[in-house]
Amino acid sequence: MALGAMRAPSVMAQSEREQLQMAREAMERGQDAYLAERWDEAAAAFLEAYRARPFSAFLYNAGIAYERAPNVPEAIRFYERYVEAEPDASDVDEVRARIERLRATLPSETPTGETPTGETPTGETPTGETPTGETPTGETPTGETPATPTTPPPPAEPPPPMKSLLSVETNPSDARITVRRDGAVVASGPSPFAENLDEGDYEVSVEHPDYQTIARPMRIRAGKVYVAILEMSQGEFLGFLRVVSDPPGARVFLDDREAGSVGETPYQNPVTSGTHRVWIERPGYAPLEREIEVGIGDDVREEFALERVTFGRVRVVANVPGAMVSVDGVEVGRVPYEGDHPAGPHRITVSHDGMKDYEETVDLQRGQLTPMRVRLRPAVSRSGAWATLTLGVLTAGGGAALAVLADRTRSDLDRDRRAGILSDGDSRITRGKILSIAADAAFGFAGLLGILSIYYFVRDPLPDSEGTTLEPRDWTFVPTLDLRHRAGGAELRWSF
Prior knowledge:
alpha+beta; Immunoglobulin-like; 6-stranded mixed beta sheet; 24 strands; disordered N terminus; disordered C terminus
């Protein structure tokens, strides 16, 4: 069934393409139900595809599904509709023969127990009497009538494979499409073109007076809808590629990783037929790479299940720029800091000269960012404590010197006393007492200063540094667009 020339308005062309996509999706649902042997559900899906785009292949496939149900009357009805829509189809005689075979399996419409008009019952005379000495045909000698044997209907042939639909659109639209199988033309018509095809290998060629003729082999599988798009200036048939990921929002790179992403999942776009390399990346998840084969007119859907990376990320901001950040006792950077570390608990310390340290144990989650906000408080000045301690040490040193002089004076006095030459008015006696008293006083004062310095070291009237650890969250790329400079890109962005 070839379509006519494309209508001019692009809005109408887009509407037809959307309808064709709806038909394709319904056809795929029907195919899935058919393979799962849910025959009625499959038939309903094929008819939904027909309502989206009235191609006779959908009627034929609905007939096959009903035949497998088995729902013979409905199978006959949709086979007949197919024949009405495709009276010149190459298999129309086969379909008509199949309809007759299915009709032969239906039960007879003659009411049970009635004798057709004009016929004489077997074993009776025309007057209705039974001949003497004979047992009526169909009765046993005891007078019982055996059950009438029924001939089972011939087994139906297994349903043929489902038909597929090939739709070809070209740019420019006034090209001519020819489909060949084993060298013989099976369909031909202008673009946009659509034809029911059986499973098998074909050659699709496109001719246009202003472009070189393009011919490509194509394999048609049963029960599929193929939508081929051809840009004749490029000389390549296109298929359709759909990329989905769990979770969605992953960036998609196609064929050239360095060229940047072509979109985010769920992604869908026509691509040239052939082998393509696809990369999937989402911040916080391990990247995936895969080769995908897209045939002419194929609608390929690739699903990616993303797994989180084995590390987490921490970001630290503080009220003191340049404060040092340490993770598990190892200095890793300065505020503002952002870094990756193995998932699990870590001791995060933020410190700066003249400020009180802040320390917190943070449990980093795989593939997630844990933000920290820290407010460092000034540390108490210890200069007074050091000055007091220094004075105390000096005082203790002076006291020690006085104690040495007092001890030396005492030794001299003891020596002279033993020699019997010490007089009661010796001035060294008074000096020794003064030195001893001064040494004790110095030690006492030094002890007082020591206690005072300890107090100054311990005393802390100022509040401690404080911080807040927020809930882990995904980190994502945010696209940017600069209309003034016609530039685009992406940046990592976070929020507190």
